[in-house]
Design a protein that fits this description.
Strand order of the largest sheet: 3-4-5-9
Helix content: under 10%
Mean pLDDT: 83
Largest sheet: 4 strands, antiparallel
Radius of gyration: 15 Å
Length: 146
């Protein structure tokens, strides 16, 4: 079932590696319409495991936290089968590029670009990701937007 939002946050105890996202706040995905959708807290993501999110247009995104602490979002639909399964795929890296392998036919998709590493003619959407601080989340819960 797609995850749509949560309000959980934790306190970071160590500095994040270069390029890593903060461990508190709200993970947001840049939707195809240009808006941002709050999905979950960074602490809801586990390295090597995906999370599915339902987007406002009815499509799905798959979010991943790589082992370097970077968050990625790509389309959840496997273009080879049509199934919404990429969030359940196996993660790894090839030539320094993080990827997810579809759990069905095992094609690998670059988490930064959405390109299929096994068939250059195929790709899935890649979405922008940002983490907004806890102060914004508190204001949103109180009914105020910044």
């Amino acid at each position: 079932m797609p995850l749509t939002a949560t309000t959980t946050a934790t306190t970071a105890t160590a500095p994040a590696p270069a390029g890593a996202h903060p461990k508190t706040g709200t993970v947001e995905i840049r939707c195809p319409d240009g808006g941002w959708l709050a999905v979950c807290g960074p602490d809801d993501l586990t390295p090597g495991r995906g999370v599915a999110a339902l987007l406002p247009d009815g499509s799905q995104a798959a979010l991943f936290l790589d082992r370097a602490g970077r968050i990625h979002a790509i389309g959840n639909r496997d273009p080879f089968t049509g199934a919404q399964v990429l969030s359940r795929g196996l993660t790894g890296s090839a030539a320094g590029r993080p990827f997810v392998a579809s759990p069905l036919l095992k094609q690998r998709f670059d988490l930064a670009t959405g390109d299929c590493l096994d068939d250059p003619e195929v790709s899935v959407p890649a979405y922008g990701v940002r983490v907004r601080g806890p102060e914004r989340k508190a204001a949103q819960r109180a009914g105020r937007a910044h």
